[in-house]
Amino acid sequence: MTGRTRLSIAILSGMILSLTTAAALAPQTAPGEKQEVPVLSEVYNLRSYSNPNYTRIVLDVGAPREYVWNETRTPPEITIDVIQACLNPIVPESVTPAGAGYIKRLRVAAKNPSTVRLTIEADWERVRRYQVFNLFDPFRIVIDIYPKDVPSAPILTTPPPTEKIPKPAQPAGGGYSLARQLGLGVRTIILDPGHGGADPGCLDPAGPKEKDLTLDIALKLKAILEAESDLAVVLTRETDIYVPLETRTIVGNQRKADLFISIHVNAYRLKTRKGSETFFLNFSPDPAVNELAAKENATTTKTIGEMDKIIRKIAQHSRIIESRELAQKIQSNLATYLSRRYSDVKNLGAKGGPFWVLLGSEMPAILIEVAHLSNPDEAKRLQSAVFRQNAARGIFEGIKAYIRSLGKG
After folding, report:
1. 3-14+38-147 adopts what CATH topology?
2. Would the pTM count as exceeding 0.90?
3. pLDDT above 90 covers what percent of the chain?
């Protein structure tokens, strides 16, 4: 086996001076003193584009990171190792680039707990050359691969097929849903911390950002679920990165998850409004719900021309009954659990709403607004780690109640 390894000079050249200075100024760690664990940056997207002249492969990383690449002839591969990084579950494990026969497959996986490896299975007989480099704002690693034979006709690239919501027969309202008739249970839960990265969510100028609060609650809930149940738990993001609304449910669909739970905190123009509320996908006549949906859907890239299709999807959504049941169980238990520990906790109920983050799910999906960052009292509570832990516990109690209602808990 032959190969050559190269280090990302573009990253290192800009870091040598700062690292040398930091090393000289940094205090020495005393014997037995605990060293800080380096923060891992998420690899959150893998994409590729083909044209007649070359194929471009892009690996999106949440923050600048060093990387090393290597090529081998047996097996015929190019590997790129991203150092001090972890893999977001939204990234598909395997992709075949459309229109690039000289690239057989792309694979991305965790090489070890702090390194993510991208493997490009290349046909060396058909590859003339390649180059690896990085770009900033946002940071991404780019691999351009050039074929030996450039076709005279343009290559037609085919976008990946869109997820389609199945259309099983709708059960009668108040009757047994198909999931209950078949005795189905829950094994995998997707937790979706709202917002992130360039999208901070609703803001309290004197306090924390919504994206940080939702991530903390989701991490606390994940810890409770893993400690006190046998459920598998996956987060759509584990650090402060931006994940588009339309792709968040892709995580659940790829994992064939059973429940999708999106966690948010609310903001309203009337600062006196307070309380928690939980939503499932549906239309709503309530102006307050529609105002909230407009805020939560602000980052979507969809257009008015797609409205008819979107309306049909909501109307045909076959999981409304189970989503409503999940929303009611979680809302009831969250409000009850918080009421035992705090005064004047308002239960705003479970209700339908047209939220983008719920639209693509192939499983029961809900959106929780834990409290109001716009209300002074609740904003103060949200800044407390104890309150966020209690909120996570209340949601957990609701999940347990829902699973019990399926006859599985």
Report:
1. Immunoglobulin-like (2.60.40)
2. no
3. 54
